[in-house]
Write a structure and sequence with these properties.
The structure is a homodimer of 334-residue chains. Helices cover 24% and strands 27% of the residues of chain A. Chain A is an alpha/beta fold. In chain A, strands 3, 4, 5, 6, 7, 14 and 15 form a 7-stranded mixed β-sheet that branches. A 6-stranded parallel β-sheet of chain A has the order 10-9-8-11-12-13, with helices on both faces. The two termini of chain A are 20 Å apart. β13 of chain A pairs antiparallel with β13 of chain B, so a sheet runs across the interface.
Amino acid sequence: MRRSLVLAERPRHHPEASNFLLREDDIPRSAAGEVVTRTIWLSIDPYMRGRLSDRRSYAPPVAIGAPMTGETVGEVIDSADPGFVPGDIVLGPRGWQTHIVSKAKSLTKLPRDGAPLSAYLGVLGMPGTTAYSGMKDIGQPKAGETVVISAASGAVGSVAGQIAKRAGCRVVGIAGGPDKCLWVQEALGFDACVDHRVAHLGRMLQEECPNGIDVYFENVGGAVQEAVFPLLADFGRMVMCGMVAQYSDNELHPGPNLGAVVGKRLYIQGMIVSDRPERFAEWRELATPWVRDGSLVYRETIIDGLENAPEALRLVLTGGNFGKMLVRVGPDAS
Amino acid sequence: MRRSLVLAERPRHHPEASNFLLREDDIPRSAAGEVVTRTIWLSIDPYMRGRLSDRRSYAPPVAIGAPMTGETVGEVIDSADPGFVPGDIVLGPRGWQTHIVSKAKSLTKLPRDGAPLSAYLGVLGMPGTTAYSGMKDIGQPKAGETVVISAASGAVGSVAGQIAKRAGCRVVGIAGGPDKCLWVQEALGFDACVDHRVAHLGRMLQEECPNGIDVYFENVGGAVQEAVFPLLADFGRMVMCGMVAQYSDNELHPGPNLGAVVGKRLYIQGMIVSDRPERFAEWRELATPWVRDGSLVYRETIIDGLENAPEALRLVLTGGNFGKMLVRVGPDAS
């Protein structure tokens, strides 16, 4: 049997298990040009909160009664496309489901001797590519500049900061709690990491960024953004990747007065990684050797069982994850 | 005798005549590499408010006791530089003064058979170049797009909108009062102009911009920005040129929530025209024929007498000008 988590009702604030319904049906067969996979890994990402809401966004919401969307890595069990055979491992099937029917052309075949499969959803996948594109296309950090990364221990932030370190920058992370901050400094090699739960976040950041902030990689918004914004240097860049702190909010708070944008010639640019699809393969090729040799560090929080995906998403939205959040839906490739 | 307006005290809100002192001294002579001009036209521009304040900005403030700064067109009366002779007309001497000593290399000689001299401070000068650079380097309007210009009848906005019309855009102005709005539509040829003094500014703008706003040229800030921001389209650009509505304020109000910057992939970029000095000559060359053939329309508000410069500046900061604000300090070139 196939199990699917379908959207039962739209969450009012953070998502809860009761917003979803477990549906069972027969394992489907593929029609021409289609492939059926059994899901191994399901990626859980902050953007999913937007799909649960009928608020206007860059992508349409998931319909009530439809399976929730999400990127997976799976094993092909049935193929009606000449490009795939059972046993192939693929990236790209979408859905909170144990078995997924996909158009073959939406899938990327993964090597069995490459990086660990879960890495293709995190450090080498959408979050890693987001960090790469954000830095390459917007932030453009130069050696000697100061770069600040919010959600620094997260799937995007941890990669963004390591890219800035490779570019020769002073990199200061912002993360929630002493464990994450310690990991960001010790394991990721950031120059400093400030805990956003402390009082005087702005003053702490100012001490770590005595020449101001040249690049701010924004994943969080809210009080963190408020502390960072006044510290931006002349010609500072804000990579506007996400504002997870407000994704479950119904009322949005005002933001910074934009007068400083003129005087400091700030550059603020929003991004959605899929706008530059060529960056995915580019980053995978660039970073796979770094993952294999251990020089690009990442961390995962793994939760077992499809039925726990809503809780996994709630954790991502409230800072309860540590690194990339994944749900293990089925056993690894044989 | 030379007359100078020197800064006596920093204004608390809008500038007043009492913030300045009239000082008289001898007409100076030029030392090597210097040129002395008698001032014909003094340009009055919103940025001057920043120079009166000791708040951190991109340029240092004018010191108490020093002549107020401002760009002029003048006639050379004494030169100790081989590049200039008495009778030359030049752009570039700076100061609220009847006679100004300048380094010769800071001056641009103007043709006597070119555009009217005052135009070199407005439509062909710093404000015109600001509009040109803002559109060329940031806004990049494309045919068929919707462009909104605040302070649309002003020295910068009037040019910015005409550039967007030449690019084939739908151009909607925002201006203060029916006279200005009428002129923006009839004389400048904008497709529409909304009076920001009406109630429901946001709804009025939405009606004029049914497909959203692709480029917003920001000169004003405040309630106008608040009305425009939610109407920005996906991939919308904000040319952050100025926020004159708050230049005299001591407390800055919050701005828009930046969540939409991510979802809509907005691009917000601050500018100071002097960061791209090559644009000045480029624009002068491009636009002089348009001024001479009347296809680039501009309007001036002229106030006579150096002693009225503080009042002219107050008017610019409160919307009391109509087009480019100038002070006529001395008679035109002989």
